[in-house]
Amino acid sequence: MIKVSFFYPYRENAPFDIDYYCTSHMPWVAGLLGSALKGWTADAGLAGGAPGSTPTYIAAGHLLFDSVDAFTAAVSPHAKAFSADIVNYYPDGVAPVVQISDVRAAS
After folding, report:
1. Is a pLDDT exceeding 80 seen at residue 71?
2. Domain ranges of the chain
3. What is residue 15's predicted lDDT score, i.e. its pLDDT?
4. Which CATH class is domain 2-47+56-102?
5. What residues have CB less than 8 Å from 58, skipping those under 6 apart?
6. Who contacts 13 (Cβ-Cβ below 8 Å, separation ≥6)?
């Protein structure tokens, strides 16, 4: 199984609408990806590693797929629409950092 993570960098005074992200964007994405998507989560950044520090990422979204090929096939037809929706939850237009990981352990 692979996990595709979208990390949204924290920017001072840059608004991120986590409610829209969790209740509109991610469910919409999940609906379009259909059965290829095995699960998803969304996280809101609270703090960095040091007490009182700001988070490195204001939010993150994670999508689970059986393989990179399954991810590519499911996302490719919708990639432009997904990217175009970013301004609805992160209007400063900061692009996410994307990482694809091989899930080695889970509980």
Report:
1. yes
2. 2-47+56-102
3. 92
4. alpha beta
5. 8, 9, 10, 11, 14, 16, 44, 45, 90
6. none
